[in-house]
């Protein structure tokens, strides 16, 4: 690992930890993504995390609050710009939507059921994003 990569890993660690502390499993390799997608059953929330301000101030807080109200079966995350192979592999499972980060995918049995792109995160109040995701999760989880 070169000095730049090591520096960036240190910078993004708190951004990763924020979701891990909320119960998310990080998928950092293509193999981890493929294994998860091949075996997952039920409702999953996939957060495509990023270093941008809208991830820090909007997406991650909204997701943390929404999942405290509605518990999906699985919580996973990939980090765009950091774990490139894992992110590209995950995006390959829902190619019908353009890549965007941060973004939130709701999957049922590994199939895309709903997608919240960056364009529905950036510029919106955190509470609106939270309520949007919570509503989608309630419907997906049958609550």
Polypeptide structure, described:
Belongs to the bacilliredoxin family. A five-stranded mixed beta sheet has the order 1-3-2-4-5, with helices on both faces. It has five helices and five strands. The chain has one domain (3-142): Glutaredoxin (3-Layer(aba) Sandwich), CATH 3.40.30.10. Helix content is 49%, strand content 19%. The chain is of the alpha/beta class and 143 residues long. The relative contact order is 0.19. A hairpin with a 2-residue loop joins strand 4 (103-108) and strand 5 (111-116). Helix 2 runs parallel beside helix 4 (84-92) and helix 3 (53-69) crosses helix 5 (126-140).
- Structure class: alpha/beta
Nearest-angstrom radius of gyration? 14 Å
CATH topology: Glutaredoxin
Number of strands: 5
What does the overall shape look like?
globular
The name of the CATH architecture is: 3-Layer(aba) Sandwich
Q: H/E series, N to C? A: HEHEHEHEEH
How many separate domains make up the residues? 1
Full CATH superfamily name: Glutaredoxin
Helix content: 40-55%
The main β sheet shows up as: 5 strands, mixed
Q: Please report the number of helical segments.
A: 5
CATH class: Alpha Beta
Terminal Cα span: 46 Å
Protein name: BrxA/BrxB family bacilliredoxin
Pfam families: Disulph_isomer
InterPro entries: BrxB/BrxA (IPR009474)
Family: Belongs to the bacilliredoxin family.
